[in-house]
Structures are given as C-alpha cells and as structure tokens.
Design a protein that fits this description.
With about 210 residues, the chain is α/β, with parallel strands linked by helices. The protein contains 6 helices and 8 strands. Helix 1 crosses helix 6 and helix 3 crosses helix 4.
Amino acid sequence: MIEIVETDAGTARITWHRATDPRAVLALSHGAGGGIEARDLRAIAGVLPAHGVSVALVEQPWRVAGKKVAPAPKTLDTGWRGIWPALAGMELPVISGGRSAGARVACRTARELGARAVLALSFPLHPPGRPEKSRADELLGTGVPTLVVQGGNDPFGGPAEFPEVDFRMIEVPYGDHGFAIPKRAGIGQERALEVITDGVVEWTASLV
C-alpha cells in the first residue's frame, strides 16, 4: 500500500508493509544517495511484518520530486516531521529509523516526535577520511533506546570508532556503507542481511 503525505517540505510517499496484528510501527527512510530500494530496507520490510511490526518505508519529498541531490538537514527534518502524523495516528508505538542520512534525521527528531526508539542503519559517524568531523552528538542525543547496525568496513565510521555509551551495536562483518559484502569474505550477502534482520527482530521484540 502506498500513501501520499503532504509536508512543509513537499510531497512525501510511504510504502507500507503491514503486519496482520501489529504491535508497533517501524518507519525507515533512505539515505542521500539512494531510495527505499536499498538492500537493508527491503530485507527489513520483508521480515518484520511476520513478527508483529508494520514497516513504513518513507521517501522524502526531494526523492519523490525526482531530484538527484538531498537538501539540507533542516529540510530533511521538516519532511520527516510532516509524515509523522500518518505513523502516530495508528496509535501504536513508533520506532523511528533510516539508513545513513535517514538515520541522522531519525536521531535528531526522536525525542521531539515521541519515538519509542531509533534504528540507525549505516549511521554516517563522519565523512570518509575525516574522523575529526564526528556526528556522534546526533546519535548520543536521541534520548530513547537506540540500535546501530554498522558494516565492519564502513568508510563513514566502523563499529570500533563509535563511542562506548548506552546504545546497542550490531556489526555486519565485511559490510560497506550499503552492507555490500566482497566475494572474498567468509560471509555471503544473504547471510549478512540475515544478521541485520535477525538483530532487528530481536531488538524490536525487546521494546514492545
């Protein structure tokens, strides 16, 4: 099911993957370089509904409009706020999430919007090669339970680079920023996606 939502940043689009008897909603947005066809978003949307969690894959207005470049973070946050009533209106706990830039949006707005928790996929801790430009404050400021799923070879920040504080971390061995696995690795692409979905299923079950 596709739902069109008008926001102050433009028209957004939600693709619903509904659970039969949902106990929560997981909202996931894409990054700055791709859409909801990302392998991790597709995998989660394919698995979570069978475990009682409806998944809402959210396309930001800039993506719906066919633009190639994401707008400023403030505009992304505005788009996310605009779709929130469609999620919260179901009167279920809403887990806010996304990959890369979408994860940053979820972190920045979680407390304000009343999210139950945050799922941060491939959180871009810093620009590649620029560890001094840390975005850890966004991650640490969610104010809610937070799960980070990070590729072991993510150039935007590997698991070992993250501060040791009160959030959960799942490492996807050998994974890059898109969780792609090199052929020489001892883990296949399918198994890497299972690491993600198994971890997210377990984590969401602990929340609601």
